[in-house]
Structures are given as C-alpha cells and as structure tokens.
Automatic annotation (TrEMBL):
A Pfam entry, by short name: OLF
Protein name, per record: Si:ch211-194m7.5
Gene Ontology cellular-component terms listed: extracellular space
Top-rank lineage group of the source organism: Eukaryota
Subcellular compartments: Secreted
Occurrences of domain Olfactomedin-like (ranges): 104-377
GO biological process: signal transduction
PROSITE patterns (UniProt xref): OLF
PANTHER family for this protein: OLFACTOMEDIN-4-LIKE, OLFACTOMEDIN-RELATED
UniProtKB keywords: Secreted
Presence of the UniProt keyword Secreted in the record: yes
Length: 377
C-alpha cells in the first residue's frame, strides 16, 4: 500500500481509490478471521457431538445388557413364585398326611379340607350360638342354589323352624326368602327340633325329635312330620358327643351323594358309634346298619362323603382334626386320617357335607363357615 502511495501521481482520485482498496482488504481479513473462528467452533461442536454419540452408544449397550438381565431375573422370580405357590397349594394346611379312606366318589379320592371359603355371622350376628346350615343334596327344581339354616332359639337347645335363603349372597347379607318355615308355633313341643344335628334332603328336614329317641322328618311342602323310634339311648349324656360339643347330640344326621344317614350309639354297643342308612320316603326307616369301634365320646362331629363316615376330634381353640374314617363299602376303619380343619372360632357344633358343591358347612359359635373338600382325581 505504501509503495502505491509513493507512485501516486498526486491525483486525489488515485489516493481515495487506494484507501478504499485497503478498507476492503481489511474487511476481507476480518471475514477470513470470522470464518476461521466459526470453522474452529464447528469443529469443536462436531468433536463434542461425536463424543456424546459415543457415550450414548455405550450407555445404550449397557442399558440393553441391564434390561436383558432384568428380563432373565424377572423370569426366574416368576418361576420361583410359581413353584412356591404350587408347594403351598399341594401342602394346603397340612404336612404329609396318611391317605384317608374313600368311597366311590365321582370327584375322586377324598384328600383334604381347604382354607375357609365362606365366613359370615349371617342375619343375626352373635345371637344364636348353636345351630346348623347347609344345602339340600337333592333339591326341588328352581331351588338348586338355596340354603337352609336352623338356629337353636330356645335355651340354646331347641328350635321350631327352618329358615331358607335363595342364594349364598342372600345368606351372607341376611336377606331371607321365603323366610321361616314353621314346624310348630310352640317351642319346644312334640315333633320340634332338639340339638344342632340337622340336615335337609329332598325338601325334607331330618332331626332329633324333641324329648324322644327318634328321628323326625319334616316335609317342607306338606308341613307334615313323620318319625321313627329305634334308639336304645335317651339323653343321658352317655350317648352324646364329647365334652366339647352340644349335650343334645345323641343322634347325628348326615347327607351325602346317596341320601340320609344317622349316627348314634347304644348301650349294647358300649358307646361305640353306630351308622345307619335311612331309606328314602315319607316314613324315616332304616335300610342298613354298620358298627364301628370308635368311642362316640372321643368324637366331636361326624359327616359322610361318598359312603364313608368321617369323625372329628377337638385339638385346641384353633384346630379340629378329622382323625377317623369308616368305609361302608369295605368295612375298613382308619384311625390316622390326620386332616386338620383350621377353625374361625373355638367350637364346631355341626358339620354338614354338601355333595352339590363339595363344601363342608360348619356352624361355629353363631357363625357360619364353609370349607372346600379337596379330592384327588
């Protein structure tokens, strides 16, 4: 630039032109500097972005490995949980137990009792300590889902009616339909109920007649009562179940797939249980009788499943044990059945098996409790 100025001919235009050229060159230098700075910034940004992409790729690989590990761990946890649940189901409320006796059950071999399936104080919570409840194994058409309840309303010993419920939910919430079916307006009196051992079969109620060594059969349709005297044991306490049960248990009634059974003892049998099959019909009559070697006062309750008699005994306030069985098909007795019932209250005053739904219904200190009978196919 200085060389050009020395060679200037003194013309003002030439000096100005040179100055403009110098300014333009300076602007170009500034632009080149900015460009270089931008290029370096872009380079740094590019390098930083590449590093971030590399880090992200590494993190994604780590996440993929971690996620795979979690999936594998989750599968292992699920398998372990399924194994524990299976072990729990197989060992339901019991350790390894002797195989109970069995009859000709279409469901298979009787094995165990489940946890509680129904637990309800019913319509009158805490009002009636003793009673019985269940379902009719051979119901009328339209009453397949009905339940019945008998509560000992007079002195905890007697009753004169059966109460009906059209469904399990009605029973639980305490809505009775059609309500009470009266045997007699007086309570107690001739042909009314004595003691908690009651069953229903083919729309008829079977029970121990008031103050008589007889089974009464109350027809709920005709409201008529028929009865049968045949027991040589009358309310001495000798013929009742053990001290943890109700005093009026001289006669115990049971139902299963085949009909109605009566469990009792006689002086001639020296207090051992006697089992009789009742013949169906308006007049309760005996069809066949079996004699056992189990002492009745060792027993708290009995029930029938597929022609096999099962007896329970009191263990403590939490447990009852099904300890005995008698198979009517073979005559085989077992004293080591060993199936435990976990109780919801200290005492079980009646047990009824329902072949309709394979449930065992217990009346316990005014509460109604049911358990599922577990069969092995």
């Amino acid at each position: 630039m200085s060389l050009l100025e020395k060679e200037d001919d003194g013309d003002l235009y030439g000096v100005i032109s040179l100055q403009l050229l110098a300014n333009e060159l300076q602007e170009i230098q500034q632009l080149i500097g900015k460009l270089n700075s931008t290029t370096l910034g872009h380079q740094r940004l590019s390098d930083h972005t590449a590093k971030q992409l590399g880090d992200l790729r590494t993190e994604m690989q780590m996440l993929e490995t971690f996620d795979t590990a979690l999936v594998v761990k989750g599968k292992r946890d699920n398998q372990r949980l399924k194994k524990h649940l299976e072990e729990c189901r197989n060992g339901l409320y019991s350790t390894v137990q002797p195989t109970p006796a069995h009859g000709n059950c279409p469901q298979g071999e009787f094995m165990n009792i489940s946890a509680v399936r129904v637990y309800t104080p019913g319509e009158y919570p805490g009002s009636y300590k003793y009673g019985a409840w269940g379902r009719d194994p051979k119901p009328e058409a339209g009453k397949e889902n009905w339940y019945w309840v008998v509560m000992l309303t007079s002195g905890n010993k007697f009753s004169n009616y059966v109460r009906r419920y059209s469904s399990q939910s009605s029973l639980i919430i305490g809505v009775s339909k059609p309500g009470n079916v009266l045997i007699n307006s007086a309570n107690p009196t001739t042909n009314t109920i004595q003691g908690p051992n009651v069953v229903m079969y083919e729309e008829a109620l079977y029970y121990n007649c008031y103050n008589e060594p007889a089974v009464c059969r109350f027809n709920l349709t005709t409201k008529s009562v028929s009865k049968k005297f045949y027991f040589n044991c009358i309310f001495t306490g000798f013929c009742s179940y053990g001290g943890y049960c109700h005093i009026f248990t001289d006669l115990d009634l049971a139902t299963d797939e085949s009909g109605v059974w009566v469990v009792y003892t006689t002086i001639q049998q020296k207090g051992n249980l006697v089992l009789s099959k009742m013949q169906e019909g308006e007049m309760p009559t005996l069809n066949q009788t079996w004699y056992t070697s189990v002492y009745k006062q060792e027993v708290t309750n009995t029930f029938m499943v597929c022609g096999v008699l099962y007896a329970t005994r009191y263990i403590d306030k939490r447990l009852e044990e099904i300890f005995y069985s008698f198979d009517t098909a073979t005559g085989i007795e077992k004293f080591n059945v060993g199936v435990v019932i976990k109780k919801m209250s200290p005492n079980i005053y009646s047990l009824n098996y329902s072949p309709v739904d394979q449930m065992l219904h217990a009346y316990c200190d005014s509460r109604m409790v049911s358990y599922k009978v577990v069969f092995r196919n």
